[in-house]
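Hi L., both proteins are below.
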Amino acid sequence: MNRLGTRAKLATVMLLSIAPLVTSSQEPPSSRNLHSDYIAHAEPVRKAEIRALWHDPIDIPSLNLAWGQGGKRHAPRQDAVYKFVKEDLGGSTTKFYVEDDEGVEWLVKVGDEARGETAATRLVWAMGFFTDEDYFLAELHVVGMPKLHRKSKTISRDGTIRRARLERREHGEKKVGNWQWSDNPYLNTRELNGLRVLMALLNNWDLKTSNNKIYEEKDGDLRYVVSDLGASFGRTGAITTRSKGKLKDYRKDPFIQRQSDETVDFVMRTRPSPITKPFRRRYYKEKAQIAEITKNVPLVDAEWIGSQLSQLSTEQIHSALCASGFLPEEVEGYTEVIQKRIAELNSL
């Protein structure tokens, strides 16, 4: 081989030897960038960290379910002075914003969702999932309360509000998108499948995409949240048969639909009658998709969330329900059904 050929060979060897070093010196994309890519392009990102959806609660038996994610330090004060800010016409329930005398903003919700939603956030939080910071107040007074577009018997003319759920609005937190049950960074993970089971356990039938929020925290972290759990603790079904916060309906509704060697289906009766499909295609598609959310759950993942739930004591479940405004007989009844469903999961 001549001298020129030898030099060419040596150059080739040197390039090949340093190529891996150049490649490995490039930093991998951060989880924040991966999530940003998902939000921008609506494509699943398999490498995204699970911590934006779930964190390890570590010691479930020690958790105080009377307060939930926000804890006692974020709870609304009994002696606080609230002033009306604006009405929220989103969704179908009566909601409005107020600000307390410390400058904290709250989204107040009244009606048949207030109690069930507060209790549901306690149970979801205890399993390690992120929720809104919800609290229940038997009564509060709002200064400057106007006549709302959506009326409620729980709102008096003098601004007294009864049986209300207050959602704390954090300064610096902003909504950056919505996530879909069928298209998100956590598809086929144990944690997302566990959340699917939790929605079935709660009988939360309003699992539409607009209720799933992606929040960016002050530190830049993201949180994937099921932000509206109000359609819980009743009966799943069609418009004329479904309910919210009704113990009688919740007690009668079955939990597990069918089971195979590898998967389990949970009851979610939201699929409309086929006769409505030609006339309301979009509505039919949305409700049919909701019905599928609790179907085909891997058995091992259902067993995992069942083992997590079984760590909750009777006292903890009582605390969650009592703090949400349920009557003593309702607390006992709901606790009985919840524990029965947990037992079903642990006998799969």
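That was the first. Here is the second:
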Amino acid sequence: MRIATLSNASAIHTRRWVECFRGFGHEVEVWSLEDGPAALGARRLPRAPLPGFLRYPLAVGALRRALEVYRPDLVDAHYVPNYGVMAALAGRHPFTITAWGSDLLVAGARDPLQRARARFALGRADLVLADAENLARAARALGAPAARTWAIPWGVEPARFSSLPPREPGLLFTSRMHEPLYDVPVVLEGAARVIERHPHARLVVAGDGPERARLERFAAERLPGRVEFVGLLPPAGIAEWLGRAEVYLSASRSDSTSISLLEAMAAGAIPVVSDLEGNREWVGERDGARLFAVGDAADLSRVLDEALDDPAWREAARARNRAVIAERGSWPRNMRRIEEHFLRLAASGSGR
């Protein structure tokens, strides 16, 4: 199968996706307005110095000409209001759109222009993929045909979590990016209250972003020597820290299926996460995790304290979470399900 993937070449999710389908034996070429790693081999589309709602449509002419030459069996677009719109405007079928969460749950909820663009693209797609039921519902509400919309989580690679280091009592770990959506200040404030009461506890913060300097200053003033910032980590580094951690923390204000949550579940780090619909598709309060109110550092502290004080519950939660990942959170198995959808569409021959 020959696939033309339209996506942000700099995003790790794009690289994982493309490498997976190439590993399945398909020919995959990537078109992007953003630069990516050389190994991805993305073909750069013209990027005008204009707002996104103009920048992406203006690149459609170049994309259409490229697709005429490449003649894909399937056009595979990621992130609804930009590359999804480009795929719809290019007019080549079959084409699929994969929503990434923030495109519909965050930006689409607050921006009428974003909603209009999403509605235009979703209504024209031959297949719409979402990684969670809440995201699939958002897509249907914006015009994605119900019969052509599927919720399939991407999942995690079990092999990454098969051999992990010994667990470190009291180690807390978070790996969300340092951006407003992920509310890392709530993680720091909530964890600080607990760390002050637990002499052996400490927090390791992975990730990066525009808020990092401010977060590091807060940690240095509030908890000197008890918080370590380790920056962006490769997948193996994330797995190692999660294997060592007692608890995984996330205060995200919006999520569909969080890959970070699934990684924590696979590694046995107990999730203490914000009470979001996307999280509740995988864990519940005292059912594999502890949940706290969005934006509430005091509530995070309360449930984190209770989780650290209950080793028997933690062991039961670890077993439960690993079983859930084995049942429905496997990246290789779920990506094969997506491949089956792609093959059925490609077999229709309408892309040539």
